């Protein structure tokens, strides 16, 4: 079974284990009943497309623990699930050989930039292109160390970092947790990367099936003033 084939229940349990239970293992031991309830919360949230704020609130009300950064957890669950659903759509419509890329926003983790950009020293550089089936084979990074990370469909936890609040060097540094904001898209051969706009732009209109059929039915006939056909039949013979 690959990463796209998990049921919603299996996926929800995996999110709970990877984002809540395992990280809090040293501080709190969740019972099987609590894990089940947390997975139920995730299932309902994903089925009803709840926002990060709504899911975070549901976690907080159930656990009564408002010190936990539930918004960070909710963000990564929703982002990962978005990429799963997007990849399922691409797979169904363009097949496993579809060329895809991950669009990055507000990403400052070098580990993330190395995975998904052609030039990790330039945040505006073109994204690396991947074959969808390769990303499917890479599975998930949620059970790996950062040194073992591969390009994947879902999101990854790139750990903690120090920063100056408000980018003010006079402010004392604090510890933050990287938010991964990467979203998977199809890379079409009729587009090219525009570094200034930081996105792919159309270089020629893609021919649609309907357009091809219409063009195939169009027949042009040119006649002279007397009604004689000069195109297509006689144009090449005209002196």
Describe this structure in words.
By secondary structure, this protein is an alpha+beta fold. It folds into 2 domains: 8-206, no CATH class; 207-239, no CATH class. It has 7 helices and 9 strands; from the N terminus they run ααααβαβαβββββαββ. It has a 3-stranded antiparallel beta sheet with strand order 2-1-5. Strands 3-4 form a two-stranded antiparallel ribbon. A hairpin with a 4-residue loop joins strand 6 (191-194) and strand 7. Helix 2 (32-47) packs antiparallel against helix 3 and helix 3 packs across helix 4 (70-94). The protein is elongated, with a radius of gyration of 26 Å. 21% of the residues are buried. The model is unreliable at 234-239 (pLDDT under 50).
In short:
By secondary structure, the protein is α+β, with helices and mostly antiparallel strands.
Please describe the structure with a list of short key phrases separated by commas or semicolons.
elongated; disordered C terminus; 7 helices; 2 domains; 9 strands; 239 residues; three-stranded antiparallel sheet; 38% helix
Derived structural class:
alpha+beta
Instruction: Give the topology string: H per helix, E per strand.
Output: HHHHEHEHEEEEEHEE
Proportion in β-strands = 5-15%
Q: First CA to last CA: what distance?
A: 70 Å
Main beta sheet: 3 strands, antiparallel
Number of helices, where a helix is a run of at least 4 consecutive DSSP H or I residues: 7
Query: What is the CA-atom radius of gyration, in angstroms?
Result: 26 Å
Mean pLDDT: 89
How many domains, in number, for the residues?
2
The helix fraction, in percent, is 25-40%
């Amino acid at each position: 079974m690959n990463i796209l084939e998990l049921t919603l229940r299996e996926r929800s349990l995996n999110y709970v284990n990877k984002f809540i239970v395992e990280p809090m293992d040293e501080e709190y031991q969740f019972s099987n009943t609590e894990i089940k309830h947390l997975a139920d919360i995730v299932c309902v949230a994903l089925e009803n497309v709840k926002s990060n704020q709504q899911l975070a609130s549901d976690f907080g009300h159930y656990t009564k623990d408002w010190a936990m950064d539930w918004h960070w957890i909710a963000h990564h669950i929703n982002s990962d699930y978005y990429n799963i659903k997007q990849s399922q759509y691409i797979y169904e419509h363009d097949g496993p050989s579809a060329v895809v890329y991950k669009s990055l926003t507000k990403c400052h983790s070098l580990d993330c930039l190395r995975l998904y950009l052609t030039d990790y020293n330039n945040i505006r550089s073109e994204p690396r292109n991947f074959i969808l089936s390769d990303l499917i084979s890479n599975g998930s990074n949620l059970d790996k160390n950062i040194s073992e990370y591969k390009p994947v469909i879902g999101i990854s936890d790139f750990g903690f970092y120090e920063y100056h609040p408000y980018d003010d060097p006079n402010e004392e540094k604090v510890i933050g947790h990287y938010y991964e904001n990467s979203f998977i898209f199809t890379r079409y051969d009729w587009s090219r990367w525009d570094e200034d706009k930081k996105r792919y732009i159309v270089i020629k209109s893609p021919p649609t099936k309907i357009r091809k059929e219409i063009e195939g039915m169009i027949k042009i006939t040119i006649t002279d003033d007397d009604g004689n056909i000069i195109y297509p039949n006689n144009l090449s013979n005209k002196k």
